[in-house]
């Protein structure tokens, strides 16, 4: 019986910042593929809060126990990155119908331009409303109250957000949720 080819998948995103929803997709993707590369890229439609290095640093502690997962920053087309790392599949998380519509278009372009297949994972119920954009808005517009985002991002990300605001000269409060 011929041996099955190893499947390397790439989970691309800006991860600006990484959320519990991202980490859920990474953990689940790690169970489906032989290797998973988390590609930290740049979304040209959004202004990043954190550099490639900072985003990688926020991700890496959460990948330590996943032996078949690594993170790497990249620039340019995602399909070129997928090829460069030996990938055959793009992994994408889907939260709702709007995500699905957008991602289906992108998947077709990636197949046409790069001959790269896309696999979709539905996000877990508790993460369906989580997005990096919402987290930044809640944090910035909500007075920097860290308790508002602690259920959405890991503690190391909360610390990085607080550090970012301090660097920008904005005084924020750190109140803890009461259970």
Number of helices: 6
Distance between the termini: 57 Å
Shape: globular
Portion of residues in beta strands equals 15-25%
Helix/sheet category:
alpha/beta
Query: Which parts are unreliable, with pLDDT below 50 for 5 consecutive residues or more?
Result: 172-179
Helical amount: 25-40%
CA radius of gyration: 17 Å
CATH architecture of the domain at 8-127: 3-Layer(aba) Sandwich
What does this structure look like?
There is one protein chain. This protein is of the alpha/beta class. It has a domain at 8-127: HUPs (Rossmann fold), CATH 3.40.50.620. Helix content is 39%, strand content 16%. It contains six helices and five strands. The chain is globular, with a radius of gyration of 17 Å. The N and C termini lie far apart (57 Å).
Task: Give a concise summary.
With 179 residues, the chain is an alpha/beta fold. The protein is 39% helix and 16% strand.
